[in-house]
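User: Could you write out the 3D structure of this protein bound to adenosine-5'-diphosphate? I've included everything you need below.
Assistant: Certainly. Input first, then the structure.
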Amino acid sequence: MSSKLLKRVGRTFSVRLSLWYAAIFTLSATILFLLVYFLLATAVQRKDREVIESHLKEYAAIYQSGGVSALRSWSSREAQKEKSFFVRVVGRFGNVLFLRAPEDWIQFEPPVLEFGFPRRVVWVRIPKDEERDFTLATQPFSDGSILQVGRSTNSRQLILQPFRRNFLAATLPILVLGFIGGAFIAYRAMQPVREIVSTAQSIIDTGDLSRRVPLRESEDELDQFARLFNRMLEKNQSLIKTMRESLDNVAHDLRTPLAGMRGTAEVALRSAPDQEQLKEALADCVEESDRVLTILKTLMDVAEAESGAMNLSLKKVDVGALAQEVVDLYAEVAEEKKITVTTSVAAPCEAVVDPARIRQVFANLLDNALKYTAEGGQVKIQAQRDTSEVLVKFRDTGMGIAPEEQGKIWDRLYRGDKSRSQRGLGLGLSLVKAFVEAHHGSVEVSSQLGQGSEFTVHLPA
Ligand code: ADP
């Protein structure tokens, strides 16, 4: 393995997690070992003391009832049984009144301790050699004498040694086990992250935006992360799709007016250099280019609204008042066509909307109503508030829309057969639909040919 690869592996999250896991595992095992050792050493010491203490009590009772002579006769009787115990009675002035010591205690001079009251048993533990200790209990009496009972006990070292040896032998397997366990857990835990990385990598490599991270239904943080990642991919995919479609549409929609402009200019160039004709051709070109610019702007607005990327300056406004503003704006047009426009607003009709965009929606609907209604007709605008939405209706007594056309009028650049005599780009209703839907609302039409049409805008309140 090259050093670069080793460095990269060392830097991976899984390896670091495994190392941490192994370290924590080893530390926990050490603490457990120390605890067991401590408990064991304490238990052994307690057991040693219990044995010595029971003898101490026995000797004390004999000494107190019959003095040193009783102790001596009892000792000679039980000599065989009690040979492992050290027994000594020291008088008030430090004179030894009674002594019986096992062989290994002969060279050893146990300390005579000075006592005052309270008369408590005092314990001394003196290391003898590597394997054994002397444990000595001293009981003071009220006459100033003391009784000492001792015994050789296993040294701490003796208990610690196998522990130390076993612990060192166990450390390596614990470390390896910890690392393997950690590696396994880290590998499993990092699986969703690896899947996210591989999905992102495959999208970058293949450009296939439909790839998604497989989900595990575990609802943990990583699963939530994968879900969010998928949602982000979905949003990106739909944005890119809309952008591509918009680009195709723009290219397609601009071809006709641009070809018209080119045709006009070509004819003018080929014809005789007549000033008037040239002026007319230029005026046509200006008109066509205005048309192209309007188409471009509207198409971009529609695409922006449809992609969900439109910035709305939302405000709480009275939608009825917005409708009234638009009616006032079109008063002159209505008057010219002798169309009566009436407004009925059930106040208050408040909703949180972008006033500029909703004004544009109402203007397009009123413009159509006036455009497709014959002279002397009527247009009624009605605004009302429901429990959860504000409804604005635009009803006219115009030419109406054939049932087979009602589904198509929302498409970009669609123009009704009978509407071609009127000015228009066929973009008004697609803009209405896109803007209303950007507000999470909806728009619908009901119409009868020759009778009139009714467009209803639903805006969430
Ligand atoms: P434009 O009005 O520029 O043609 P629109 O997108 O606003 O484009 O409308 C699409 C088509 O829907 C129109 O060409 C027309 O046929 C039909 N339409 C829209 N509004 C009305 C209406 N109020 N009455 C009758 N037809 C309508």
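The chain has a mean pLDDT of 86.
User: Perfect, thank you.
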